[in-house]
Design goal:
The complex is a heterodimer of chains A (433) and B (183). Chain A contains 23 helices and no strands. Chain A has 433 residues and is mainly alpha-helical. Chain A is globular, with a radius of gyration of 22 Å. Chain B is built from ten helices and six strands. With 183 residues, chain B is an alpha/beta fold. Chain B has one domain: CBS-domain, CATH 3.10.580. In chain B, a hairpin with a 5-residue loop joins strand 5 and strand 6. Chain B is elongated and about 50 Å long. In chain B, 40% of the residues lie in helices and 14% in strands. In chain B, helix 7 packs antiparallel against helix 8 and helix 8 packs across helix 9. Classes of the chains: A mainly alpha (433), B alpha/beta (183). At the A-B interface, helix 7 of A face helix 4 of B.
């Protein structure tokens, strides 16, 4: 290994530790790390800006940007608040039925939008419903954070790690639907059962309080029905664009940007309204991360590591896939799953190649990585961005959730969901083939 | 004119005052800010008028304004009645009220210095304390503007009354209820 490579690994490891311990702003760490790679000559401008493998993956950045703009406009319609209250009323405000419907809605919304936005939208209305029902909101908030991580696993756009995996592996929206959505559907059903065991059986029904929920007027939240109709049409077209990739060959990032452009045109909202929803800091974090990982790719560090792993694995892809699945789940509970997947994707790429056209046993590694990284985020309060957001909202509303309270339930949910994925990966890719 | 000429006594509330009582005090005296004092009557926090409406708004409505629309009249009234159960201390501790960094001026400070302190801290009230930190009262924005108008040559009966009578004398429940000054 060259001196430059050794220094690059040191910079990467140092940045990773700082990101994992969250002592310093993660975006600042990623950008300083990227600058360090440039200073030591690990990457050049050409690599940073014009190479998907060794620089910034613009597909990921612009897909995130486009979806953030669409969601920013969609949330102005009040549809999320309407659906949540409508669901509670459909459940006749019975506590567990309400929780189950909120879990299903959160999982579904997280599959179509990003997790953080979903929980940001559903948490305030949950606090309102729990206040009306005179119930502690913590079980509901915990269930929603975990449902968003499970639901987000189902699609290419549901969770940022999936976007990175899709771009690096060349996997399409439909690939994710075919390979991940079926198991996620099972996981959501199982998770609803877990919600009953963990929290639901202790929730008490009070008919008087239920009346207070039934008196709410959810239709009032939809202030601009015309904008809602237009935005639902645009969202449907964007999904159609993702689904028809094989015909149109339009990258998901382009579909999202076209959708964002259409949403801006039809909404006629002032730019500050929808741009406020764009998490510029997250996008910069991704950019810095890509440059750091790209430097290791360019210097051959990832290739060397993949070579060693290939020799260790041999032809035993079953063991490798299960190792990636469980290992990713454990690591994603401890460190942010975005840098983890950004690092692992080029490694898996070197191990088995791009996802499309691979034999099932080799392709299983890509899906194991997605399942492990996404579902592992449920293990602790810092395992996924949605968890951090929910615990923050709970604290501000006077119902703090301690790290250990989250982790106590999170470990159970992660063990059960990842435990179900182990036989799924085995059956799907090694038995059925 | 100096701060000592404009100082006035305003009704204060304690941390143990309920939100409902505080709302009544603010309404009765048409205050532009709520002054929270300790047991000895020394101000410990000033809550600007713009924030006072937050005492009736739960956190979820402040996070998502659309949720204010889903309450019917009965539900909204019920939220208001809850102010009887929450004290000003609770509301500050829950971050539903955020006291301003109360600006302080010296009794000998000029109109310009008082205006500068209010502007810098975005506070409609400044506390007047001497160099020994002894509390004298407050200068309110309405009285400061009356003094500024007077200094600029604008004169009227109302301006003079505003400069002569402080808030607590303009109307108290003991005097037969809050009075409304006739224009």
């Amino acid at each position: 290994m060259s001196v430059t490579a050794v220094v690059a690994v040191a910079i990467f490891a140092g940045a990773y530790v700082l990101i994992a311990t969250e002592k310093v702003n993660r975006t600042a760490v990623a950008l300083v790390g990227a600058a360090g790679m440039v200073v030591i000559g690990a990457v050049r401008g050409q690599d940073v800006f014009f190479s998907q493998d060794t620089g910034i993956d613009w597909n990921v950045i612009f897909l995130l940007l486009g979806m953030m703009v669409i969601v920013g406009i969609l949330r102005q319609t009040g549809v999320f608040e309407f659906v949540a209250i409508w669901a509670a009323q459909r459940a006749r405000a019975r506590p567990f039925r309400t929780m189950a419907l909120l879990v299903v809605i959160t999982a579904l919304a997280s599959a179509l939008l990003d997790n953080v936005t979903t929980v940001l939208l559903v948490a305030p209305v949950t606090l309102l419903l729990c206040d009306r029902l005179a119930l502690a909101p913590v079980p509901f908030l915990l269930a929603e954070a975990m449902a968003s991580n499970i639901g987000g696993t189902a699609t290419l756009i549901g969770d940022p790690p999936n976007i990175i995996i899709a771009s690096r592996a060349g996997l399409t929206f439909n690939d994710f639907l075919v390979h991940l959505a079926p198991i996620v559907l099972v996981l959501v059903v199982v998770f609803v059962g877990l919600c009953w065991l963990l929290w639901g059986r202790r929730l008490r029904y009070d008919p008087g309080r239920a009346d207070a929920v039934m008196a709410l007027t959810p239709k009032e939240t939809i202030t601009e029905p015309q904008l809602l109709r237009r935005m639902l049409a645009i969202l449907a077209l964007v999904l159609l664009g993702f689904l028809t990739h094989n015909l149109t060959h339009l990258e998901p990032s382009l579909v999202a940007l076209l959708g964002a452009g259409a949403a801006v045109l039809v909404s006629r909202l002032p730019s500050e309204d929808y741009l406020a929803e764009v998490e510029w800091e997250t996008l910069l974090f991704f950019a810095g991360l890509f440059v750091m990982v790209g430097s290791l790719v360019r210097l051959g560090v990832i290739e060397d590591l993949a070579g060693s792993l290939t020799r260790a694995i041999g032809d035993n892809y079953l063991l490798a896939a299960q190792g990636v699945l469980v290992g990713s789940a454990v690591l994603s509970g401890v460190v942010d799953n975005i840098p983890y997947v950004a690092t692992m994707s080029p490694l898996v790429h070197d191990l088995v190649g791009p996802g499309a056209g691979l034999s099932p046993d080799k392709q299983s590694l890509w899906w194991a990585l997605a399942l492990g990284a996404d579902l592992g985020g449920n293990a602790t309060a810092i395992g996924a961005s949605a968890n951090v957001v929910i615990t923050g909202i709970a604290r501000r509303s006077g119902h703090p959730i301690s790290f250990w309270e989250f982790t106590r339930y999170g470990l159970v949910v992660t063990a059960v969901t990842v435990g179900l994925c182990v036989p799924y990966v085995w059956l799907r890719y090694f038995v059925v083939g | 004119m100096q701060a000592a000429d404009l100082v006035e006594q305003v009704p204060t509330v304690a941390r143990s005052t309920t939100g409902a009582e505080a709302a009544r005090v603010v309404a009765e005296y048409r205050l532009s800010a709520l002054v929270v004092a300790d047991d000895a009557g020394d101000p410990i926090a000033v809550i600007p008028g713009s924030q006072l409406l937050a005492i009736v708004l739960p956190r979820w409505v402040r996070d998502d304004r659309r949720l204010a629309k889903v309450y019917d009249e009965k539900g909204a009234d019920e939220m208001c009645r809850r102010l009887n159960d929450a004290t000003i201390g609770d509301l500050i501790d829950d971050d539903r009220l955020t006291p301003a960094d109360a600006p302080t001026v010296l009794p000998e400070d000029t109109l310009l210095e008082i205006a500068s302190a209010m502007d810098e801290h975005h506070s409609p009230v400044v506390l007047v304390r001497d160099r020994d930190r002894r509390y004298h009262g407050v200068v309110t924005m309405s009285r400061l503007l009356a003094a500024i108008a007077s200094a600029a040559g604008q004169d009227s009966d109302l301006i003079r009354r505003r400069l002569e009578k402080d808030i607590i004398l303009r109307g108290t429940p003991e005097q037969g209820g809050p009075t409304r000054e006739t224009p």
